Amino acid sequence: MTRIRDVVQMALSTGYLTVDAENQLRQLLAQTYEQEDFNAFMSLQEAAMSGKVRQESRERLKYLAVQKLHSQTVEKLRSLSCENLTASK
């Protein structure tokens, strides 16, 4: 059976926490675990906060936010372009 410390070790060694690993940690944390697992999880939290471990879920959110901002900017530029064409006639 996979333990919290095993999932944490993989994330710490790769510097990356996947969405699947995050979900696995949620499931494991909902069960009974040992102090060593808790300590490992806290180490992962510290590594993520300090930037030593990147989180796929956060990167996805940033990507989606940038995409949304890009779409809004393109739409605004189209709108302004149409207004300028109408005003010049």
Distance between the termini: 72 Å
Query: Overall 3D geometry?
Result: rod-shaped
List the strand order in the largest sheet: 1-2
Secondary structure class reads mainly alpha
- Sketch the major β-sheet: 2 strands, parallel
Given the structure, what is the number of helices? 4
Give the helix proportion (percent range).
over 70%
Note the run of SSEs as H and E. HEHHEH
The amount of beta strand, in percent, is under 5%
Question: Uncertain segments of ≥5 residues (pLDDT<50)?
Answer: none
Mean pLDDT: 90
What is the number of E strands?
2
How many domains? Answer: 1
* Radius of gyration (Å): 22 Å
Structural notes for this entry:
By secondary structure, the chain is mainly α. The protein has one domain. It is 79% helix and 4% strand. The chain has helices at residues 4-14, 19-29, 35-50, 56-87; strands spanning 16-17, 54-55. The protein has a two-stranded parallel ribbon. Helix 1 (4-14) packs antiparallel against helix 2 (19-29) and helix 1 (4-14) packs parallel to helix 3 (35-50). The chain is rod-shaped, with a radius of gyration of 22 Å. The model has no long low-confidence stretch (mean pLDDT 90).
